[in-house]
Amino acid sequence: MMRKLLLLVAAFMVFGATAQNKSDEMDVMVINPKEMGIPKHKIEDLIRRKVAYHNRLFEKNDLLIKRGVKSIEYFEAPVEFGNLSLEATSLSISSAGLPPVFDGTAFSNRSLEEKITRWLKKNSENYKVILIPRKKQALECGMSFRSNALSFSLIYLAETGQCASDWLLAHELGHQDGLVHEGESEVGAGGDCPDQPSLMHSGLQGERDLIFGNPSECAQGRGKPSKTPYDLYKERSERNKKGAYRVQSESQVPVRPIVISEQYEIKNMDVHAKIVLYNPTRQSMKGTLRLIDLNAPVSLKNRSVTFPEVMTVKPKGVTYHEVTTTREKLLGYGETLKVSAEINWQ
């Protein structure tokens, strides 16, 4: 087992594992979503956004690999998550049918452990991603486990801060593919590219737009004949090109544009919204925008405003949309507004 805690975004544990041929689909389990303070539709938008980033990364590196979300499930449990390394170790041990080693971890809760173990073993050829509420004292953002029988990634879900990076999901799924950080193996190890860290580089800083070993942008140094992450994904891409790959419709995965960011400026009685959307499909899409004040009591049934004009987002690109309304129309509640956008796509 390898453990990386201090100042690492992610860590990877492996118990006698051999390479697994994962499908290009992932199952997502969101535990205690109420503690995240994010509506479910935004949680799903965050997931889709991270998957879209993932696929753009492969496309940028000229690799025919496209991943999608097979299912998203939610589960509430009376637990509090602690250190990710202990939590992932606890789950990996219990899911293997071994007696628990740690007391006090979230996954030592019997009902949660049984639920997740069944879920991990169902369709185990899919990537398994477990999203949990982030704790402020945490020093890491993700932890992955891989064995001969199953694999999973345990990730803090956050809208802002160090754990909000979209590349984190691609990094953790890389661990499920058997890739490791630099210096941890002669096969599938990350490294530094000329201007920035590569996907499997360990640490907090920088983006992860490059895959170590790509000869055109992040080539391996001379005298190092080890197989790189790019080599491994290139082999997978070549297999896909030979016909083993089932191409999914662009208009189905994902089925709608993704909200990249929302900014709200409130001055006196006016509320100004700036919304940035990314449409990964090849079709332009239309929808209507609804703003809602999440701080308003649930008893206020009409606590939102829907804009009559139809907004259009362009295909395969980013669209910026701005609207202005008033606190009166929005039924802004109290001194502090917590505005959120919902879009009904046609």
Write the layout of secondary structure elements.
Elements lengths: L9 E5 L10 E7 L8 H21 L7 E8 L8 H12 L14 H12 L5 E7 L8 E5 L4 E7 L9 H10 L52 H16 L13 E10 L2 E10 L5 E9 L10 E3 L4 E3 L3 E10 H4 L8 E7 L1
Parallel strand pairs: 1-5, 2-3, 2-4, 4-6
Antiparallel strand pairs: 5-6, 7-8, 8-12, 9-10, 9-11, 9-13
| SSE ordering | EEHEHHEEEHHEEEEEEHE
Tell me the CATH architecture of the largest domain.
Answer: 3-Layer(aba) Sandwich
The side-by-side strand order for the widest beta sheet comes to 1-5-6-4-2-3
Gyration radius over CA: 21 Å
What is the molecular shape?
globular
Could you give me the name of the CATH homologous superfamily of the largest domain? Collagenase (Catalytic Domain)
Overall pLDDT = 78
Taking the sheet with the most strands, its summary is: 6 strands, mixed
Beta-sheet strand percentage? 25-35%
**What is the CATH topology of the largest domain?**
Collagenase (Catalytic Domain)
Describe the structure.
The chain has 346 residues and is of the alpha/beta class. It has 2 domains: 10-244, Collagenase (Catalytic Domain), CATH 3.40.390.10; 258-345, Immunoglobulin-like (Sandwich). It is built from 6 helices and 13 strands. The protein has helices spanning 40-60, 84-95, 110-121, 167-176, 229-244, 327-330; strands at residues 10-14, 25-31, 68-75, 127-133, 142-146, 151-157, 258-267, 270-279, 285-293, 304-306, 311-313, 317-326, 339-345. Strands 1-5-6-4-2-3 form a 6-stranded mixed β-sheet, sandwiched between helices. Strands 9, 10, 11 and 13 form a 4-stranded antiparallel β-sheet that branches. α1 packs across α4. The longest helix is centred in the first third of the chain and has 21 residues, at 40-60. The termini are far apart. It comes from Photobacterium galatheae. This is Peptidase M11 gametolysin domain-containing protein. Keywords: Signal. Residues 1-19 form the signal peptide.
